[in-house]
Structures are given as C-alpha cells and as structure tokens.
Design brief:
Blueprint: E1 18-25, H1 32-40, E2 49-61, H2 66-77, E3 83-87, E4 98-105, H3 112-123, E5 131-142, H4 146-157, E6 163-169
Antiparallel strand pairs: 1-2, 1-3, 2-5, 4-5, 4-6
C-alpha cells in the first residue's frame, strides 16, 4: 500500500466543523411559504399568531472554514436580491418573543437537495462538505402555547416517519 493510499488517522477528539446556514426573505419581500402557513393555522385551532417567517436551513459538515461556508451561502444558497443569509455563529438582530419550530429530514432519510448542494459547493471550488442536510425553521410570533406549537408541527409541518422536529420558545 502506498503512503498516499494509507488512511490518515483522525486526531482523537477532533470534531468535523459544522455550520448551519439560515436563508430567509429580506424585509419587505413577500414570503409565500409564510403566508401559506399563516393561512392554515386556523385549521388546527391556532388563531393568535400575528406573523410567520420561514427560513431554509442548510447544515454543512466537513473541512471548511466559516469564511468558506459564508461564500457558499452568499454565492449558492441565497438570492442576493430577495433573501438574507446568516451562519449560526453570526449574531442575529434581536427578535420579539416567538416560537421557533425546526423540521429536518432524519439522518436515515436520503436528502437529494442536500446532495445537490454538496456537489454545487464543490463546483464553486470550495472544499466539498462531507454531508449537507436540509431543513426549515418556522418562526411564529404572537401568543402561542407549547401544545399549539406542537400541534402545528405535527399536523402541518412534519411527518414523524421522515422528520425530526424541535420547538423552542425564544
């Protein structure tokens, strides 16, 4: 076996870098996904939500820097005219109290969008992430109880067979 073909041991305790990119509509631009969800809330008995925001989530894992992940977000994942993006490690503007509902494909599920993004990152001459997973975050503003947030997740946003979900009051 040649030296180039030998496996290089991973240092003990070394973690693969992980970045979560959030992409959402810029203020003043309509968000059809948010409007659609808001119009469906009454069907599950939730009438007190005053605003909904939807964010696309991309989890990039692999040997890349925060600057490279930012380039991927800017050049690939967000439309510079209508969308904003941020990495999870960047500070966000403070928001009023809201529920953040996240829906991700389970790791046992194939993520074709994630695979396309992984390949497209490589096409940008950036280090190819080992994995890319996609999800969505829903920010619900207004008076909402935990049971109502869970009902929205269960009945409108997810399928327990293929999704993992979280609900957090922020």
């Amino acid at each position: 076996m040649s030296a180039a073909a030998q496996a290089v041991p991973k240092p003990v305790g070394a973690e693969v870098p992980r970045y979560v990119v959030e992409v959402g509509m810029k203020p003043g631009n309509p968000d059809p996904a948010a409007l659609a969800l808001q119009s469906q809330l009454s069907s599950v008995g939730v009438a007190s939500v005053t605003e909904v925001r939807v964010l696309a989530l991309y989890e990039l894992r692999g040997r890349m820097t925060a600057a490279q992940a930012t380039l991927a977000a800017r050049d690939l994942l967000a439309d510079p005219v209508t969308q904003d993006y941020r990495l999870d490690r960047q500070a966000a503007a403070p928001l009023p109290a809201h529920w953040r509902l996240e829906v991700w494909l389970k790791s046992s599920m194939t993520d074709p969008v994630g695979e396309s993004v992984r390949k497209a990152v490589k096409d940008l001459n950036l280090p190819e992430p080992a994995t890319v997973r996609t999800g969505a975050a829903y920010q619900l503003f207004g008076r909402l109880q935990k049971s109502q947030a869970d009902r929205v997740l269960e009945r409108l946003l997810s399928n327990p067979v293929i999704h993992r979900v979280t609900a957090e009051l922020r």
